Amino acid sequence: MALSNKEPVSLVQGPPITDIFTPFDMALSCLKGQLRNDVSFSVGAILDQTGKDVVTNGGSGKMVTQGAGDMVQSALFQAGVSLLNRRDPRIIESEAKWGIRDPRQIQASDYYVTGSINSLDFIPGGGLDMQIGGVGPNYSQTRIMVGLDLSLTDTRSSKVVANVSLQKQIAAQDYGISAGRFAGHTLLNIQVGKGEREATNFALRQMLNLATFELLSQVIPPATFESCRAEIPAEFGQLSLTRSSVALYKFKESQKQNTVDSSRSLLEESSSHNMSSPDEKNKSTNSPSKDTKPLKNKESEVIKNPEEEPEMSKQDLIKYISMKKYSSSLGKMNEEKDNNQKEEEKTLKLWDVNPGVIENYWSSTQRD
């Protein structure tokens, strides 16, 4: 309260202002320098499709944030990608209409992110209220489940190259103790309690940051994001069945198989060398031995993995945008394909000269 109507009311100073940090920012920052700078990203509409409104004494409004697109844009900037601002094109459009800006000088985006927050469900909770002699504890719990979908789209072909769906349960609980007693003709009633509730919009920011990391992981090799994925704390986020999770699992399995094969070949070579007799060592190398048998082909050379060709063709459909080349553990390309790829990369430099004429070099369609 102010002592006088002519004096301003002193404002209460709460906690200091801090920057926003989520448990997934370290994983996003780990991707800096791993992605190509000549591939541009932008963020489209990420709408609130929950249909849930809240009405309070101060008015009515939406239950979830309406700035999800700006959160995704901040996450992309945190990852260090080449980012174009498409959140508010009114200034660019106005300057183009006024004739003070040439629209052809504006850089075109290669990929853009769209999506929606599409589910907000209230899960029935439970509670406990027990009193003996007017004294007892009370406890209650409620949950809200939020879900969202994000997609990464190729601007040239409008093809969806990455997609992720996430959900999270937001928990809230209240507990306390109450006591009521009569002191003569006077009733004494005491209630003490505490409430804990996750911030809904901060939880959505965490979901959007994790979804952005997943979208980028789906278009780069597993060897590139494997170390960055380890920066995600398991208690804050778990990705088990996403596309990048499956690719990372296959990558680790192939590494284990290659390690086992190499160790097995070394053991076979050492055992064959130790078992050779002195007489065999003194034999002339020009005279062939009658006991010599043709080498048995390895199973890996005879039996082909049925999933090998589809996996490679799928990787050819979506060109990786990382700075690192695809790991050799997934199979080395032959020299002829390498030469063709080098010639194709030389022609891709025409993108910087005239992007309006040349086709999208990220697609699998080959130019004539």
Walk me through this protein's architecture.
This protein has 368 residues and is α/β, with parallel strands linked by helices. It is built from 10 helices and 8 strands. It has helices at residues 25-30, 68-78, 90-98, 200-217, 222-229, 243-275, 278-282, 299-302, 308-317, 335-348; strands spanning 40-48, 53-56, 59-62, 82-83, 111-129, 135-154, 160-183, 186-197. The strands form 2 sheets. It has a 6-stranded mixed beta sheet. The chain has a two-stranded antiparallel ribbon with strand order 2-3. β7 and β8 form a beta hairpin. α2 packs across α4 (200-217). The longest helix has 33 residues, at 243-275. The radius of gyration is 31 Å and the shape is flat.
Order of helices and strands: HEEEHEHEEEEHHHHHHH
Structural class, from helix and strand content?
alpha/beta
| Distance between the ends | 79 Å
Percent strand? 25-35%
